[in-house]
Structure formats: structure tokens, C-alpha cells
Amino acid sequence: MTSKLASLNQWVESVAQLTQADAVHWCDGSDAENTGLVERMLSNGDLLRLNEQTHPNCYLHRSSPSDVARVEHLTFVCTQDPADAGPNNNWMAPDEAHAAMDALYKGCMRGRTMYVIPYCMGPIDSPLSRCGVEITDSPYVVANMRLMTRMGADALARIEREGAFVKGLHSIGELDPNRRFIMHFPEELAIQSYGSGYGGNALLGKKCHALRIASYQARQEGWLAEHMLIVGIENPQGETHYIAAAFPSACGKTNLAMLIPPEGYRRDGWKVWTVGDDICWMRPGQDGRLYAINPEAGYFGVAPGTSEKTNANAMAMLNRDAIFTNVGVTADNQPWWEGMTTGEPAKDWQGRPYDKAVSPAAHPNARFTVSAKQCPSYTDQAEAPQGVPISAIVFGGRRASLVPLVLEARDWTHGVLVGASMASETTAAATGAVGVVRRDSMAMKPFAGYNFGDYFAHWLSFDKEGAKLPKIFQVNWFRKDAAGKFMWPGFGDNMRVLEWMLKRVTGQAHAIETPVGNLPLPADINTDGLELDASTLEQLLAVDRAGWKAEMESIAEYLDEYGDRTPSALKAERAKIAAQLA
Ligand code: GTP
Ligand code: SPV
Ligand code: MN
């Protein structure tokens, strides 16, 4: 098979030449194709079949132990001018990057099949969607892309119609951490990845295309590509408001997107609808509101910590047609990870007999891949071509201290400052130290495809005549007490905070004004059925003026890192708050 699009055929041909692939397989996305790939992976050990009674069509993949997370230090944005990539990215000159990658790709697919994956990010008939083609030598990547994107014949037809697509080239190479690069060429709408088979390094539609390349395009075209979940909250009157929330990797997006409200809320008729759990593309509609689509079609979620107690919706979608990566297994071959309330592990994620003293059963960044349609809180609004209107934008991170449970920004400019100055403790989603607080603007530190100074200016530019922008909030589910215990119960109980936010949106809830934003009083948060002592809630909603003064100094230094690309409106907003705190 070839395509009707000459430019696509030529590119596929040139890659086949360079890599010396044995065969070229154009993916149509059919069930038969998937069955064939699964058979192939079962026979070569790429996949292991899980318990067919409890988990039909579920498979385990054990990745190379040195290839278990994104590699931010090996991820580059290659623009002509280094200033366009900005201090927030690693940069390499495009010519130099191409030379290095061509040398790696040369002959790298000898003895392997090269898969050509046409995919569409977003509903296939949405004007907000964008297409790409990923070439890969990993059948595991094909199987994951099939769950994570609209992949195959329909996407190819759209690509042929539009004549344009993002070019992604991926090879697992030797899986050698010393021969591994994730390169982005936003000016060429191209991605080149070598040496990793894992998640965001290898499923190029996800972070590489839908965030790094898309954020660059979004700036040129007047929209936003964000690291955000999209969730619909339906109140007892039957009105649904959609919230988009940016939390850094492994900081709670999947969990908030699939939240099950506390019992009292469910009794009163509150419902939660999941549109997306990781990426959100937003654009102003005719009425001035922001409309959002989830460009993905599936979930690549963190397994550890997922349980009947924390995320029953996720557990319910994981008992069929799912791929598990780097989890442990029970004696009867069911997937198992830390936090699970039933079963016990027999083997760890590397296939060794489980020994708590040696390793956790699941790698801390173990993941599941599953179609979004299997989630009990799935809504067909996830297929709406025009997207869903966003009522509130939420920024949040892991902050053991200082940042209160919730605060509301006074206006858009203040909200952009709140997002830009966000910080969070690093997690196992990327290689490197875990638990180190770093600035992670809009949860996009590893994902913005251009200079953060320009990105902040782009965010500010949405505040214009006729715009009906969402309110912006900041949350922190991760405050710890002196003993190191989380102070807020989190998970389903986060509904209590969402309710306050939505009542602020509709003008039904009270707030007090402080220099850092508008906060609820403890009495404004519904605590019915919650065991939380009054003093804890008070501490969660307190504003530590001395702490915030120091934070504002640190934010000033951070904004200065982007030099004259940092919008002066953002610096002025910060200075105003600092003055009020003084
Ligand atoms: P990525 O897929 O890496 O982008 O992560 P994510 O932002 O979707 O994070 P996810 O929802 O998968 O949560 C990551 C970890 O944080 C899991 O172990 C969760 O159990 C835990 N977590 C999520 N929400 C909460 C919460 O409200 N409170 C606490 N204490 N932990 C939470
Ligand atoms: C993240 O790290 O934010 C993820 C997982 O969502 S990955 O696909 O590896 O980027
Ligand atoms: Mn993510």
C-alpha cells in the first residue's frame, strides 16, 4: 500500500532507504491488524498475556529497566534561533540535530519492519484536530497509538485531503541510554526520536506532537495546547460546567478527570464526566468562550496508587482490552501495583520473584493504556467536533507547604501569573531526582515547544475585546503536616473544592480577598460526611504572608530568566502583589 499523497510516499520511501527496514507496513487500524501485531509480540516476548478470565485481551509489557520514563535531559527543541526555544528547553541547531539523528537512523531498522501510522489528534471530523504520521519499528508503539489516537484509514483520508501532517520518526534503536534523543523541529513540523520505547518518548502523537509541536502551532494560529485534563461537573439542576486543569506529570490529572463525588454529593445528583486526562486544545469560539477538545482517544495513566478507593472508574476500565507496562503480577497472572486493595504480587515489574526489600512490585511510573470509551464516566462530548466550553481553568502542583488548598485569581492577568509561577515537586514520570520543587509553568516545563516568555505573552493575549474567559484557580491537594502526612484527603473529596469554584463561577459562593488571591473561609467548603478537624482546614486555607513574600522574590528571579521576552504586564502584576504583602 502507498498513499495518494506524493509528499507522504516520498518521505516514507526516504526513511525506508535511510533505515534499511526489511518491510514497510502501512497501519489501517483494523482489529485484524492489531490481532496480528499482538500475536507477533506474544511470540517474541514483547507482550505477556495476563489472566484471560479476569482480564480478557490484557497484556503486560516489561520495558528495558533503563527505559521507564521520559528523558527531559535528552529532549531538545531545535529552532534556528536558540532564543525561540528559550531557557525552558534544551536546544540544538537543526542542522547539527539532523546530522546526529541521520547517523543514528542509518541502517537501524535492518531486520525489522517499519510501521507507518497515520493518526489524528482529536475527533476525526473536528476543525480543531490535527494529523500526523509516525514511522516506528516498535509494534508496541503501534498497539499503544491505536488506543491513544484515532489511527489508521480515517486519519489517512484526512491527511490526504489536507495535504499536511506532522512527521514523526521513531526507532527504538539499541535502547541504549547513551544513544537516545527526542528531537523536535517545530519550524519543520517534525519529530525525531531514537533509543527509547517508552511512553512520552516514543508515542509521538502525545507529548511530542500534541504539546511541543502543537503549542508552537497554537501560538501562530491563536489557540492553546495545554497539559490539562478536561472534566464536566453536572450539578443537581442538570447543568454541566467543564473545567480544564493543569497539574504536572503524576500530580493528579487522571484522578481528577475520573473523580467519583462523595456519597452525599451523589445522593444530591452531582455527576462527573471525563473528556480528557492529559492534554487539552482550546480555542475561542464565536461567543468569546474558550472551547476545548481532548486530542487523545485513550489514557496512558499512572498505575501505582490507582485503586477502588482512589479511582474506581479507572479500575473498572482496566479489566479488559488494556496494555500494562512495568506493573507486577499476582500468582494467577493478574496485574498488580502498589496501592491496590486486593491480591498480592508474586513477580515484580522486571519479572523477578517479588521481594519488598529489593523493589516495589510495580515501577513507580508503571502505566496502563486503555481506550477512553471504556471509562464509566466517558461522555460522547469527547467526540464533539466543536469541543466543550470551559468555565474554569485550574493550576495545581505538589507543594508540601505554603500554597493553600484553593485560591481564585482576581482576573486573567493575575491567573496567568499564578500559572506561570506554579512550582511542584518532581515525580517518577521523568528520569532524575524525585521530590525536588521546581518551577513548572502551567505544568508545561517539559512540554512547551517554544520560549516561555513568548508563551506567557500568548496566554495574556486571549484577554481581549469580546472574550468571555474562564475564571482561573490554583489548588494544592498535597499539603503535608509536620509528620509528613497529607493534610487533605484528596481524590473524591476534591469535589468539595470544585463545588466552591463552580459556585464562584456562577456567583453563588463567598470569598475573601487577599494579596495572593480570593480564598474561601473554612465555612464556605462543604465538609458534610468528611472527617477533617477544623484546625486542619483552617491551616489549609491560611495565607502565610512571610512565606508568600519570599515566594514573590523567588518568582521575580524566575520571570527574569526569560529576559525581555517576559511580558511587562506579568512583572507588574507580581510587583503589585509583592507591594501589598510588604
Ligand atoms: P501523568 O499521566 O504523568 O500526566 O499524571 P497525572 O497528572 O494524570 O497523575 P495521576 O492522576 O495519575 O496521579 C499520580 C499519582 O498521584 C497517583 O499515584 C495518584 O494516586 C496520586 N494522586 C492523585 N490525586 C491525588 C490527590 O488528590 N491526593 C493525593 N494525596 N494523591 C493523589
Ligand atoms: C507525563 O509524563 O506527563 C505523561 C506520561 O503523561 S508520558 O506519556 O510518558 O509523557
Ligand atoms: Mn501527562
Instruction: Write down the domain tally.
Output: 3
Distinct bound molecules? guanosine-5'-triphosphate, sulfopyruvate, manganese (II) ion
* CATH top level assignment of the largest domain: Alpha Beta
Distance between the termini: 69 Å
Biggest beta sheet attributes: 9 strands, mixed
- Number of beta strands: 30
> What fold name stands as the CATH topology of the largest domain?
Phosphoenolpyruvate Carboxykinase, domain 3
| Principal-axes shape call | globular
Alpha carbon gyration radius: 23 Å
Structure in words:
- The protein has 582 residues and is α/β, with parallel strands linked by helices.
- The protein has 17 helices and 30 strands.
- Strands 1, 4, 5, 6, 7, 8, 9, 10 and 11 form a nine-stranded mixed β-sheet that branches.
- The relative contact order is 0.12.
- The model has no long low-confidence stretch (mean pLDDT 98).
- The structure holds guanosine-5'-triphosphate, sulfopyruvate and manganese (II) ion (MN).
- Manganese (II) ion binds next to loops.
- Keywords: Cytoplasm, Decarboxylase, Gluconeogenesis, GTP-binding, Lyase, Manganese, Metal-binding, Nucleotide-binding.
- Pathway: Carbohydrate biosynthesis; gluconeogenesis.
- It holds the Pfam family PEPCK_GTP.
